[in-house]
Amino acid sequence: MLRTYSRACSPWTRHLSRSSILSFQSKPSILKNLKQEQEATESPIEMAKDSHLAPVEHHFKVAPRQPTTKAPFLSEQEDDPNAHLSTFKQKIGQWVISTFGMDMDKSRSGPVAGGIYFAECKRQALIYPDEPMSDTAKFYYQTLGLPVSFSQQVSIIILHYWILSVRMRALPFKYSKQYQQKLVDRIFSDLEARMSTELAIKSNRIIEGYLKDFHTQLLGCVLSYDEGLMTDDVTLASALWRNVFSASDDVDVRHVEALLVYVRSQLYVLNKMSDRAFGFGKFRFVPPDQVVTPISKHQEELIREKTKAEFAQMTQPSHQSVLSMDE
């Protein structure tokens, strides 16, 4: 059911032109307006806590469905830290790659985008009853005061998908498409599985209806966030208010500002990563309790040299890549 549905997602895959990429890199933002000698930059969590408004009570006509069980975070093989190929199978795999000249950047898109980056998106707002919240989940549900519901988790997953997709769209075209598609396919297959297991929804028709709704939501979010990315912080903040805060009239503007800084921080870090480092899954979302400040040209060069030194030691056929280490 979902496989057919996810393949239908490919027509909406969006790509940034080279001129758009350059525009993004030079676009004014909160971070780039900060002075280098700043003394007291606040993290998103600190910004949100500056507000002294009373928390908003969320009233639901129907109480959100809560998980009745807990599905594996990833697949069983991915969850198992001891799961790996034998030395013999690894050698065979390396021989096949070398002999047949496989495009490893294309092959790598599955485990990186559909594994590493999918996990990064999923864990940000994941929450289960009677379990301690992660620090990032506390940021969304306690600091920002967002309602605890499955649909709210989806909106946060979509936000993090979009953040990653901005960087993916700056990759060479054929790899850009692969990385985006692998990530969105995995997100929707996981949503389908979680609705069936954790939420105990037994009707395939109902699950399919939710998936179509989430797909429509994703399309709208990508368009609105892209508009904010290519215009200004006011437009991006408005998109966050509509899509993450459900356009609530009671929203705390300081909370929207904190989320805006969080998003711009992630985009700044991604913009400083080389294609090679990002394509190999080296990016992790910056926690909301940390501050991202602009780096100097000298620091950029040091990071670039460190990246090149790291990849110079990766000489196996499976490590082959045409992705740039300079941009």
TrEMBL record:
Where does the Ubiquinol-cytochrome c chaperone domain start and stop, copy by copy? 142-285
Q: Which InterPro entries match?
A: Ubiq_cyt_c_chap (IPR021150), Ubiqinol_cyt_c_chaperone_CPB3 (IPR007129)
> Which Pfam families does the record associate with it?
Ubiq_cyt_C_chap
For this chain, the family text in UniProt reads: Belongs to the CBP3 family.
Q: What is this protein called?
A: Ubiquinol-cytochrome c chaperone domain-containing protein
* Organism name: Lodderomyces beijingensis
